[in-house]
Here is the input.
Amino acid sequence: MTKVQTIAVILALIFSVTAVAHSQQTARGANKIEPLPRDLEIQLALSALPPHLRDNATVYVLSPDMGFEVARKGTNGFHALVARTGDDTFRGSWLFTRYRDDILYPISFDDAGAKAQMQVFFDAAEMQANGSPPEELKKIIQERYRTHYYKAPERAGVSYMLSPILRTYVNPDVNDNVATANVPHVMHYAPNVSNEDVGGALCHTSRCPRILRAVCRGDGTSGHQQRI
Here is the structure.
């Protein structure tokens, strides 16, 4: 799939999902997410990775009734999925009162990240599928961060988010505003590394799109985002 085709497919998907999200949630229950076509979800997940890593990566798809499951077992240590209720949902103090059906962003992890950060995505999807109310889910995940239930990765690593388009929260540390954006980027993470250690800059404007922005998490991990 070419970059232009990928953008067109994701845009069409986002617009269609956004348009029917509310009515579908009302009809099916507030916890359930409309599944994506399986082949499309696999392609979207793989778009998070650079081309040379896609063929041998492990790919997951979301089952609304049970959470994430393996669609294809890989061999290169990289893992890819399409987040629908991602870890950014659990940042900030804003109330998480409903499961959104218009969040959609491909994300990938190396092996160290899959054993650590990716678990948050899996736990959230499973609890959502099992009927946990959104307010309760956010409290549980935040408490797990606070008590170090989620451990920092065993080493420094990388999370690719190279898909040409995504839809998610704009600044989840502050509020639940959502936007569709073209922000392919790579996130480098390292246990217990600070902003000062890497010269990170907290910047949210177009004046600094290619320098490191630090994202500090409660699991002992510092994630540093590099736009490309």
